[in-house]
Amino acid sequence: MTSRVAGVRKWANLPLLLTVALLLLYGAVVVHSAISGFSAGSAMFQRQLFGMALGFVALALMWTLDYKRLEGWLGPLVVFNALLIVSPRIPGLGGEAKGATAWLEIAGVRLFQPSEPAKLVTIVIMAIVISQFKGVIERPRDVMRVLAYLALPFGLILLQPDLGTGLVFIAITMGVLLVGGVKPKWFLVFALVGVIGVGVIFKGGFLAQYQEDRLLVFIQPDRDPRGAGYNLEQSKIAIGSGGLTGKGLGQGTQSNLNFLPERHTDFIFSVLGEELGFTGSVMLLGLYLALLMTALEISTSSRDLFGSLIAVGLISMWTFQILQNMGMTMGLMPITGIPLPFMSFGSSFMITNLAGTGMLLSVWARRSGV
Amino acid sequence: MATFHERLKPRYAALGILFLSVLGVLLVRAWSMQVLSGDRFAAAAENNRVREITVDAPRGRILDRNGEPLVTNRATLGVTVSPSVKEDEEMLYRLSVVLDMPLADVLERVTSTREAALKPRLVALDVPMPTVAYLAEHQSEFGGVEVSVVPVREYPHGVLAAHVLGYTGEISEESLNSGEMEGYVLGDLVGKSGAERQFESVLRGEKGYRRVEVDAVGSPRHVLEEAEPVAGRDVVLTLDLKVQQVAEEALLGALAEARADDFKNARAGAAVAVDVRTGEVLAMASVPTYDPALFIGGISMRDWEALNAKDSEYPLNNRAIQAAYPPASTFKAITGMAGLEYGVTSLGHSYYCEGRWTGMGEEWSKFCWNRRGHGRIRFTRGVADSCDVVFYEIGYEFYKRDREELQAFSRRFGIGSPLGIDLPGEVAGRVPDAAWKAEFNANYPEYRQWLPGDTVNMAIGQGDLLTTPLQMVAAFAGIANEGNVMRPHVLKEVLDSKGEAVRSYEPEVAFAAEVSPETLRAMHNSLLAVTESGTGVSAFRGFGARVAGKTGTAEVAGKDDYAWFTAYAPADDPRYAVAVVIEQGGHGGAVAAPAAREILAVLLGLPVEHVQATDVSR
Fold first, then answer.
1. Residue A220 lies in a domain
2. Which residues between 244 and 273 in chain A have a beta carbon less than 8 angstroms from any beta carbon of chain B?
3. Any chain B CB within 8 A of the CB of A312?
4. In this structure, are residues B536 and B544 in contact, taking their beta carbons and an 8 Å threshold?
5. Does B41 reach chain A within 8 Å, measured CB to CB?
6. Contact flag B216-A257 (C-beta cutoff 8 Å)
7. Quick one: closest CA in B to A134, which residue?
8. Closest CB to A237 among B12, B18, B48
9. Which domain-ending residue is among A207, A227, A251?
10. Same domain for A86 and A40
11. Is residue A162 in a domain?
12. pLDDT below 50 — which residues of chain A?
């Protein structure tokens, strides 16, 4: 008996599996509440469950796949990543959503958003490239090499345009660089480049009007409460009005009366905050803490730097998305279309997060001392 | 093998600290929003989803004493324009073409500052269906323009009794801020004058409201709470539609006749008829009049200015209660009774009128209206023929007694103070006395002294004496009612929704003059002689009832004479009293008395006929 449990423990990280299971359950409950008012609500919910099922398949595949085998595929992965990102632009394959070409479509059937798996591929690419430096990145040309691998997917994703995913790519790169051994002074350089980059993006006309509005509204929330500031204002009202214990599942007025925009995707936390209150927020943050802690444990227990950095990339991706998504619903971050891991409605996103979990398990199963 | 772990340990720690800080910041933010500011956001969420829609209560109707509607309500289609589009002249021009009204009028209404800043301005009422359809089809081209059903006041009899009924309008910001008008909000319709204002609290009813849950685009999801409006109550006035009609026609007829008869400035007048026993006002007319319908949906600036222009004779004034005139010889009824009561004169006292009176000395001589003189004359004929000399003598006696008894006696009949009629704006008039004169001329020491001529002039209803038509009719009604001046009123009763009276006006004595029956009888007989053999005889020749009345012809500085007639009838069992004033109309017996005759005729059920009368008395 004990030996069997020990045998399972050898390759399965039970805290991680439990945490992810609870997050999925929590997400399903809140999404169900958010979409129950939609006319297509039950069909949407089935689609979400189907996405989870596909996600479990992806998780299992990634788990069984020895991550070490990816290390030799840098070139093909870079090409594959680029193809993923530009695929919606290929005539006959693309579909539009909210001004961005984000969907892979074949014969009018939406398959998935390629930008989601591209995040995972980018993590693997960064882990390969940075682990090659064995934890010491000092020379500018080494840094430049890393940044070059970032520049390709980042540039291509900006053409969609999908600034949110681009920022995720940057967050992944920065996280992996941090643990991967880059000299701290480089972060000063990155910060400087970031500031200049923001300036160029603003002044250079790279932003669509709606994106510029969103950023300006973030800086000055009451700028246009009926227009661009509306989403933020309504989201804050929803979360704040939840109080300590919330209005109860399905009882959120901000949510059910459509004051909340995109309530089942980007603003799912606003629904959670309104209906489950501060108690619900604490529960969610607790689950995220457990997720990130176990991921960090897996990272430090990896037998090699490559596997460790894959985990670091996942931690960076999730941390940034949690900060960006919850932060934007509470007015701490500007509004960008970044969903909340394991919670937001959307199959491609769900599959990606579960596949990422599979990669963590793959690293864990092959850790040192097993 | 695992060397990198040791070497990179601080970096893993940094990553851990990084995500711990992120989660910590989010936790603090959630705490601050949900726990610390939860109430504020909860209120904002409530404010988002709950809309309170008030439902205006239908305003009560105003009926005449027989239940004939004088003011009712109707629903009509109106076009409103939001003031936010007042700059869009191009669109407003197109709208003016569609509505077939001058652009200037549209602009004036949209930019009106007489209404709440954000409230849509009513631009057109009674909009025909094709126009409504056109606006509905071209909605996108007419931003800020809306067609809605507007409840408005309706006046089935047009301008009839406009002064008594009054008009309605949007509550002014001043009265809102004054605190008197509780429960009102900007934009509410209130009575602005007349009965509409006086009985506002009864007519308005109670607003209903509906608290609805709305979604983000404002469409109602369901009703949370509602209260039906309670309709305002119908008010029954003491006015009699038929009498009112005759009174107004008689006034207009008298004015037309005066103008035809060389009194070109005769443009204004008033008439009042009351029940002598109850004080009920059966008719109250004032000329010139106005159309209360002009105020529906807000009066235009041009109409408002026209109603208040210097040369307009101020049609909004209800002259019956708001104008104070010298009562002239009609006042001799009061002076005469005072003389009898105080023993200053008697029925047997003999006077001699040679046309000129020098009782105060040669240099202060005064004339009787009849320059040839009435010769030897006693009290009754003195009243009947309106002999000024008789009343100069009486007035002079009062002056010499120096007790201001004439003033005190006048006040016992309600002269000089408001009678308390249930209409807004009643003025007091003036009974002049020594104290008043001293104060009035405080800055002119040489005029502060009360002089013999002051009392003498007052005795014939001139000088500084001023009365409203209502005061004179009430005083005459008092003579007919054993010296009890009933409080004049226009409210008969208030009806509930089933038409049952829930409140009735209880008649009350406003002034008990406490005059001896002998004095009343003597005056009664004298007033009868006026219409039967005196100055009013030609106006009442062939009238089917005996009338006790008095003519008056008031001198007003810089104006033509004002014609007065005040009377009550039938003489044997008096029921009704009437007063008529025609500003700059000439002689009372010639101009005012025939009008009074017509009003008395309709009151007494006699044929209403217009007679040509002559009178040269003052």
1. no
2. 244, 253-254, 257-259, 273
3. yes
4. no
5. yes
6. yes
7. B4
8. B48
9. A207
10. no
11. yes
12. 1
Identify which of A282, A300, A319 has the shortest CB distance to residue B22.
A319
- Could you say which DSSP state residue B561 is in? P
Model confidence, pTM? 0.70
The distance from CA B611 to its chain's CA centroid, rounded to whole angstroms, is 31
Q: Considering Cα of B496, then B500, then B503, then B507, what sign does the dihedral take?
A: positive
Q: Given A158, A191, A207, which residue is the final one in a domain?
A: A207
Question: What range does the domain containing A81 cover?
Answer: 75-207
Distances (CA, A) of A159 to A170, A206, A309: 16, 9, 28
Answer yes or no: do A281 and B38 touch at CB < 8 A. no
Bridge partners, A137 (sequence order): A182
Question: Looking at the domain covering B241-305+312-565+574-604, what would its CATH class be?
Answer: alpha beta
- Does A213 fall in a domain? no
Most A CBs within 10 A among B21, B26, B27, hence the mutation to make, goes to B26
CA B194 – CA B196 distance, rounded (Å): 5
- CB within 8 Å of A320: residues ≥ 6 apart: A167, A168, A171, A172, A175
Which pLDDT score, from 0 to 100, does residue B3 have? 67
A299: which chain B residues are within 8 Å (Cβ-Cβ)? 12, 15
pLDDT at B213: 85
User: How many folded domains does chain A comprise?
Assistant: 2
Scan for tokens 């057109």, then name that residue: B124
Number of neighbours of residue A195 by Cβ within 10 angstroms: 10
Confidence (pLDDT) at A201: 72
Residues whose CB is less than 8 angstroms from the CB of residue B144 and which lie 6 or more positions away in sequence, other chains included: B81, B82, B84, B85, B88, B91, B120
Q: What is the CATH number of domain B53-81+120-132+145-237?
A: 3.90.1310.10
Q: Say yes or no: A178 and A154 in one domain.
A: yes
Taking the domains of chain B in order of start, what are their residue ranges? Answer: 53-81+120-132+145-237, 241-305+312-565+574-604
Distance from CA of B224 to the nearest CA of A (A): 13
- In the predicted model, residues of chain B with pLDDT beneath 70 are 1-3, 113-119, 218
Q: Which residue has the tokens 């009422």?
A: B125
Predicted confidence at residue A1, as pLDDT, reads 45
